[in-house]
Amino acid sequence: MENIVAKKKFGQNFLKDESVLRKIIEAMPNNDNKIVEIGPGLGDLTKFLVDVKSVDAFEVDTDLCKVLQTKFEKEIATKQLHIHCGDVLTAWKSELIEESYDLVANLPYYIATNIILKALADPKCKNILVMVQLEVAEKFCAHEGDRVFGSLSVITQSVGEAHIVVIVPPSAFEPQPKINSAVFLIQKNSDRSDKDFEDMLRVAFTQPRKTLMKNLSSKYEKSILQEAFLKLSLAQTIRPHQVSTNDYHQLYKLTRSLDGTRE
Ligand code: SAM
Description:
Distance between the termini: 64 Å
Bound molecules: S-adenosylmethionine
Number of helices: 12
Strand order of the largest sheet: 4-3-2-5-6-9-7
CATH class of the largest domain: Alpha Beta
Mean pLDDT: 94
């Protein structure tokens, strides 16, 4: 590794297994969108990406920015690559990327969920192909009835479809993390994103092993919930992970309209 010592505080685990890099490239949706890469690191994934697409990359580590600027001098000059050196959480504004884009990245794990939620809510982001820790990938890709089906799964299913592309062992990285990782793909087909709906989901899953009725009763009147559950044929004993995304949307609409009629 070009005399660079990995910095733990930036979640630096560099992907060295070329077969995984190739699987990421093969899984990329076939379109003309540009790519946003978060955390290019030493540029191992970036070099494959700039071969096929134009890339906007965000890197917080100034030492790595210098490495990237030297390594990709040609691609930067031809505007195939634009490196934004800074913290993505403050540097990445929706208006910065003007056209449709796909997010493709081996994400810094400590902010991965936050970044994916931001991309899911951004209408310009069309697809998300990212590496995160396996446990997190499973939450985004879970289906109704799965033990880990939760608010992240419902938010994802509300805007598209998700699946795991490949599970990646620690040995693929340098330095090696302690946990398994996974690459997963979300193909968006809608821009539906509603903050109030997401707030309801957070309440619905506050205590995942309790009943949905119990969790939601901290937000809604019991009589409203009973009527809505009856209309949707949901058992009062149902647990939050057993309810489908469609039923969550129906429940949201019904509780709002019943709430309105009783004011
Ligand atoms: N893409 C490289 C690879 O696959 O080898 C590196 C991936 S490493 C898991 C995460 C990268 O994200 C590191 O380069 C790290 O410096 C960068 N990073 C961490 N926090 C960041 C932040 N807040 N904004 C932008 N980049 C960040």
